[in-house]
Give the backbone structure.
Amino acid sequence: MPIETIRKSLSGWFGGNSSIDEDYLEIDVERRERKSKIVIRSFILRKFEDINDILAALREGYTIAVVDIKQLKSRDIVELKRAISKIKKTVEAMDGSVAGFGENTVIATPSFAEIYKPGMSMPSGAGAGMGGMPKDSFFEE
C-alpha cells in the first residue's frame, strides 16, 4: 500500500521505530488571537448615535477612548447626559474606568487600564521610570 510506504519513510525522520499514528498535534480552534498593541483613539460626540462606534471599540478590549463632548454639550445637554450614562454603564460592566478631563473630554478604558484620580492610592510599580520624580508632579512645573 502506498500509505504504508509513506509511513515507513516518515517514521525514519521522526525517530526510527516510533509510530506516526501515535504522534498528533492538538490545535485549539477556540483560542482568539490577541492584538499586540493598545490603541488610544479619539472620538467626537456630535449626536447620541455616535456612542455606537465608541462602545464597539471599547468592547474589542484594546481601545482607550478619548471622547470630545463639546459639540453635543452645546446642542443638547439631555442627550449628552444620556450618552455619558450609556458609555459609563457599558464600561463599568466591562470592569473599566471612565473619567472626565476638563469640561469637554471624557476618557473611557477597558479593564486592563485604570484612570488615576486624585486621592487614589497608586498601584505598586506605577510611575516607575520617571527619573525619581514624585508621581503626582511629573507634569507640573
